[in-house]
TrEMBL record:
It comes from Mesorhizobium waimense. InterPro entries: RutC-like_sf, YjgF/YER057c/UK114. It comes from the Bacteria. Gene3D superfamilies: RutC-like. It holds the Pfam family Ribonuc_L-PSP. This is RidA family protein.
Length: 152
């Protein structure tokens, strides 16, 4: 399998997301549903349990869940094709990147430890950052959808 993420540049400056990823020779694709930072006692049917802490803690928990899920399904962080971030407001300056719930620093620290090629200053997969007024539960601040290749 070959997975090539093409870097995105604007005026000669590297952007913190990839332009696109070309995958060839993969056995398949893994599509992960939106991951949130649910606590161990979370029960959506019984509306019990909660979510893991502040924005930084939620980002770390979600990214850890994605890593575990990919490995369980036969893939891994190194095979990421695309990420979609749903970030709950507030948006003090009007844009999603101004939200205290958008934590690129946590994302980069996680990838520096687990898959350095995906740090924002290296060659991260293509991604979208979408600002939302609410997510499934009131204390969720981040939800991440991931797509990865399934190596042969």
């Amino acid at each position: 399998m070959e997975l090539v993420t093409h870097k995105k540049f604007k005026s000669g400056r590297l952007m913190p997301w990839g332009k696109g990823t070309v995958v060839s020779g993969a056995k398949g694709t893994v599509y992960l549903c939106g991951n949130t930072a649910t606590s161990d006692d979370y029960d959506p049917a019984g509306k019990e349990g909660g979510f893991a802490g502040d924005a930084a803690a939620q980002w770390r928990a979600v990214l850890g869940n994605i890593k575990s899920d990919l490995e369980e399904l036969g893939s891994g962080l190194e095979h990421l094709i695309r990420l979609t971030f749903f970030v709950r407001g507030p948006f003090p300056d009007g844009g999603v990147l101004s939200s205290p719930n958008y934590r690129l620093d946590v994302l980069d620290a996680f990838f520096a430890k687990h898959s350095p090629k995906h740090c924002s200053d290296n060659n991260p997969p293509p991604s979208e950052v979408i600002g939302v007024a609410a997510l499934a539960q009131p204390d969720i601040v981040i939800e991440i959808v991931a797509v990865a290749a399934l190596p042969d």
